[in-house]
Design brief:
mainly alpha; 4 helices; elongated; isomerase; phosphoglycerate mutase activity; EC 5.4.2.-
Length: about 90
């Protein structure tokens, strides 16, 4: 089961409603929180994810950068310019 948990003190269904089953599961069963947007799932900062992005990252067990974000990360880490396909300096 998955649900959204707000990082701020905004009102969510679990705060506004009585949820004894969810409360018991949360207290007694293992659980984890994961991010579903932005760089944490390979998207540009603050961009909301979707089911495809979620499935790709969960299935891979790591961050799978989407095309635009991958380019941004490679440029920032300076690995983009080491790509042999792009290194044609007069050849």
């Amino acid at each position: 089961m998955a649900t959204a948990i707000a990082k701020t003190n905004r009102i969510t269904p679990f705060i506004a409603l009585k949820t004894p089953v969810m409360d018991a599961l949360w207290a007694k069963r293992p659980h984890t929180l994961i991010d579903a947007s932005g760089l944490e799932v390979g998207l540009p900062d603050r961009q909301m994810g979707n089911s495809e992005v979620g499935h790709v990252n969960l299935g891979a067990g790591r961050i799978v950068y989407q095309d635009l974000t991958r380019l941004d990360v490679e440029i920032k880490e300076r690995t983009f310019f080491a790509n042999p396909v792009l290194d044609r300096r007069g050849r």
